[in-house]
Amino acid sequence: MLMNSISTALPCASKKILISVFGLSEYELRLVRSVLSLTMASGRRHSYALFDASQAGDPDIVILDPDNSQARAALQELIETRSIPEPATVFISNAGKAQPGKYHLLHPLVPTKMLALLDQVADELEKVLPATSPVSAAVAQKAEMDKAANVQPLLQKSPSASVLQGGHRALIVDDSPTARIKIDLELRSMKIASDCAETGEQALQMLEKKNYDIIFLDIVMPGADGYEICKIIRRHPQTKRTPVVMLTSKSSPFDRIRGSISGCNSYLTKPVEHLKFRAVVEKTLSTVDESTGLDKSHGLAMGT
């Protein structure tokens, strides 16, 4: 499949930003679909959704593999058939290949990097797109609010402003790309940076090199499971006080007992729910902030 059309509605913008994708593998297209479906429920500035190619509209942004001759031909055919100017192009290529143009991605596609680049392009297009009349903008805004309400009504209940200190970093440990993307988006909406690991063993290597304020740890993973990894984290002097939130597809009393024995601080059931996620993160990190503040105060009192 060479082409897939995607759209995003800019908040209060005059039109949608339409994206056509040429030359991605089926696996990469599945990742793109996952990213788009998750952005609708994350409370972020740009929300993306799959666009029905049968609907009216021309692409504003193209994601193209320039080394794929069929993809290039399909893009040229689209431009000629619809008599449109060449859209803004994001090139995706293999490492070491020449990278033409301004925007670049590498194979294999990393969803979070793709999303960040799409946001950058959308922001730049927003500056040059013609503004609509106040009435049109109001109609567009209401339509998007109605759509968001259908996707996730709970988002209408805006959570209170975060009381967290800045500069937090999280480690997400899950073998599911969809789960990692979902949690990363939720953390971004809270202005929390994150790194990702696909296995427990990879996570342990990352913990040796960097400190984290909170760890999200899936239970069922290839290799060592989440319980075993949590025990190792608790035994290490550098990480023994780092909060661990277990991720599970089911939450039974037995799971909670095993989690408690292994040393986890809290549980989240997948797929994570927006308001529940925020509540758990804010409660956990607020405790970390208070502990850090007490440690600093104690150090000052001791004259250190």
Question: What share of the residues does DSSP label as strand, in percent?
Answer: 15-25%
Kindly, what is the distance between the CA atoms of the first and last residues, rounded to a whole number of angstroms?
Answer: 63 Å
Number of helices: 9
Overall pLDDT level: 76
Quaternary structure of the protein: single chain
Q: The CATH topology of the largest domain, please?
A: Rossmann fold
Question: Ranges with pLDDT <50 over ≥5 residues?
Answer: 1-14, 131-161, 294-304
What's the helical proportion of residues? 40-55%
CATH class of the largest domain, please? Alpha Beta
Gross morphology is: elongated
Q: Which value, in Å, is the CA radius of gyration?
A: 22 Å
Main β-sheet description: 6 strands, mixed
Strand order of the largest sheet: 3-1-2-4-5-6
Going by CATH, the architecture of the largest domain would be 3-Layer(aba) Sandwich
Report the count of strand segments.
Answer: 11
Give the H and E element order. Answer: EEHEEHEEHHEHEHEHEHEH
Going by CATH, the homologous superfamily of the largest domain would be Response regulator
How many domains?
Answer: 2
The SS-based structural class is alpha/beta
Structure description:
By secondary structure, the protein is α/β, with parallel strands linked by helices. It folds into two domains: 3-151, Rossmann fold (3-Layer(aba) Sandwich); 169-301, Rossmann fold, CATH 3.40.50. 44% of the residues lie in helices and 18% in strands. The strands form two sheets. It has a six-stranded mixed sheet with strand order 3-1-2-4-5-6, sandwiched between helices. The chain has a five-stranded parallel sheet with strand order 8-7-9-10-11, sandwiched between helices. α2 (69-82) links the parallel β4 (61-64) and β5. The longest helix has 28 residues, at 274-301. It is elongated, with a radius of gyration of 22 Å. The chain starts with a strand and ends with a helix.
